[in-house]
Structures are given as structure tokens and as C-alpha cells.
Amino acid sequence: MQYAVANFAYGTGPYLRTTELALAINRERAVRGLPELGVIVPWVYGEKQRRIMREAFADAPLENVLLDKRLGGMLGTIFYGEHTYEQALRLWVERHDALSGEVRRHLSGEIAVEDVRGNTRTVRGSDIVIEISRAGRLAYGVAPVYAVAFGYVSEIMDKVRTIPQEAIALDRELARRAAVLARGVEQSYVFRGRAHPGTFSYQEDEGRHPDGDTAIPPTIDVTAPHDEDIPEGIYVTVTGIPGLERLYREAKALGLRLYANDPDAVPGSEWLSPRAVANPRIRLHFARSGWGSVWLSQLTMTPLVAPSYDPHDDPEIYFNNICVEKLGLGVLYRGQPLADILAHAERLRPRVAALNAALAARFGTLDGNSYAARRITDLMTA
Asked: According to DSSP H, which parts of 12-152 are helical?
């Protein structure tokens, strides 16, 4: 068997999105009578990652989706999470060359992996034929790189230096070095799919990567209908928003239930899969404005409420928030009463519907993974 290997940034969305794209490529290969690829996924977040993947891909064939613990450990050393964003960025800049070499050696030999159900096996790195990247931080250097992006790390870091320090509290020289490093990683891509909407879609001319890119729809699986009979409520996939506890109380006063994928982090909430955001009885989706969350709200027509930007957070979120607000994709939380947020969110629904209709007319689909998979498979078989 030949393999695809995933390369992604920190967080839950990136490993889910790269796995989705790999599975879409396999579906496209099956249509063309080509053999399935195994999918090697860095195992960064332990059993929580395995559980989330089992839930997210419950209906997909997973016997050849393989978790690589050693690769995940390498990526985890430079990921935002255990460190502040600036600390993580500095570690990436300082360790990139050495760590990329370590990854390349690992992926060139015998690789111990587990599937999502815990079965172990060994695969040969020489059988890796494609790398799938989503804002990947390292240059694996073992196979052609096919990337999908909401925006490029290099352009985000370049833009940081045009923003006042009090708005984005990131060392500007570090941002410059990160931009140079990211451009080096991005130059290795043989395919660049830029999803719409994305980080800089609010600009009249959002630009193109200097080496060219291909416009694609949102790269998140179009959520299946969720018609479970649940009490009306709001879904929360983010915590730490100042004043959110007050909104929890207001939600209860309005007779709305609280749902979350991590009830321990959201007081008074009930567990539901993120798929429930598609349920028409979910009135709002509270989430940080990563593109997985934004697209989930957009494609399910469930209004998004995102926190205001913390100057010490990932600068991508600063620009994402601008895009969310300017395109009418959601509401930024600035302490408004919940009743006002609900009213504002309802007024945004026609704008989101119009955006989705325009995307469907432009691309013929809202399924960016299948759209990108066709073009990647064309390139792989040319």
C-alpha cells in the first residue's frame, strides 16, 4: 500500500480537515479505479485526538487511517498550546531546520503506527507518495506536497507588521523571520488550494500566492442534516470569552439549553457532537473564529458568535475576525446582551445564504474537499 501523510498546524480542526481531504482523495481514486492510499496522521493530542477522530469519521472507513505518535510528538514541541503564541512561534523559527531533518529521517524509515481503534502495524516511509498540508509548519521533504489553505502563514506574518503593536502584541522581528521561513515551506507546494471565504476574503483583492494558487470552496465536509429532537439552545465550542458566564445565565432565562463538546469546560451544558450545530433548534454557535468553526456555521446556516481578539493570540484570528464581521459571517462578542446578539444574528442569515449561493454558482459545489481532491488526483495521475 502507498500512503499520504498529513502536515498541519496546532488544534483540532487542522488534523480533522487534512484527514477529510485524504479521505476525499481516496473517494476520488475509487471512482477512477485507483487503489486506496493509507493515511498517516501525526498523533499530537493523545487519546483525545483518537476519540475525536472516531466520532468525526464514524461513517468512514478508518482501518487505514493511521496515527503516528513519534511524528505527533515532534510537531507538538512547536505547537501553540503548551506555550504562548509568541513562544511557540519562536520555537518554530529556531527549531525548524533541525526538526524538519528529524522528521525527514523518521518518515524515511520504518514507521510504527496505530489505527484509530488501537491496532498496531509498521509501514515503510518509502511508500509515502503524497503530503497533504494545511498551514504545515515543517518541510517533511519526503513526497510532493499538496496544500489547502484559508490564507498563507507568510502573508499573515507580513500583514502583522502593518498593524499597531497594541492590536497584535507580537514581536515584529520575529514575525518577519517567520514570514521568511513560511515562504520557504510554501515554495515546496505543487498544489495550493485557497479556500473561499478565507482569512483575507474581506479585501477587494485578496491576492494570490506568488507561486500561484487555485480557488476552492470551504474545505470542510458538508455537515449531514441533524434532525434529532432536542430542546432549543446554543452550542459552545470555545471558552474563556470574558462575560460568557453572564450569557449562560441569560440563555437559561430565555429558555435556551447549553450544548458543548466539552461539558466540563462549559458550566451547565450538555454533551452533543459538533454535528449538532446543523440542527435547526441550535440558535447560535459560540466559537473562536478558526476557519473550521466559521465554515461549520456558514454551511449549516447557524449564526456564529466569536470572541473579540486577544492581542496575544494567533494573529490569524485578528484577521479572521475582521473577515467574519465584514462579510457578515457572524457576530463578534463585545459584551452585548444575548437578546441583542440573537436579533443581530438573525439579520445576518440572508447574507450568509447569498454567499453560499454565490459560492455554489462559482464552483458548482460547496464541498471543497471533493473539489480539491479531483484537482489533486488530476495532478497525481498526469
From this structure: 12-31, 46-56, 69-76, 85-107
Own/partner contacts of 116-120, CB < 8 Å, gap of 24 or more, are 116/50, 116/53, 116/54, 116/57, 116/62, 116/65, 116/67, 117/54, 117/62, 118/50
pTM of the model: 0.93
Q: Cell numbers of 246, please?
A: 453572564
C-alpha cell, 164: 499597531
Q: What is the fold, at CATH topology level, of the domain defined by 3-221+367-381?
A: Rossmann fold (3.40.50)
Boundaries of every domain in the chain: 3-221+367-381, 233-363
Q: Which three three-digit cell numbers place residue 131?
A: 503530503
- Evaluate the CA torsion angle 247, 253, 256, 262 in order and state its sign: positive
For the chain, give percent helix, strand, coil, nearest 5: 45, 20, 35
Compute the distance between CA of residue 351 and CA of residue 146 in angstroms, rounded to an integer: 32
- What DSSP assignment string belongs to 49-64? HHHHHHHHTTTS--TT
Identity of the residue numbered 129 = V
Under a CB-based contact definition with an 8 Å cutoff, are residues 276 and 226 in contact? yes
CB 309 within 8 A of CB 331: no
Pairing type for strands 120-124 and 128-134 reads unpaired
C-alpha cell at 352: 450568509
- Report the length, in residues, of the chain: 382
* Mean pLDDT along residues 96-113: 97
Report the C-alpha gap between 300 and 296 in whole angstroms: 6
Per the structure block, which three cell numbers stand in for 278? 446543523
State whether residue 337 is helix, strand or coil: coil
CATH class of 233-363: alpha beta
Amino acid at 33: G
Grid cell 507518495 is found at: 129
* Predicted pLDDT of residue 240: 47
Mean pLDDT of 109-130: 96
Q: Comparing 3-221+367-381 with 233-363, is the CATH topology the same?
A: yes
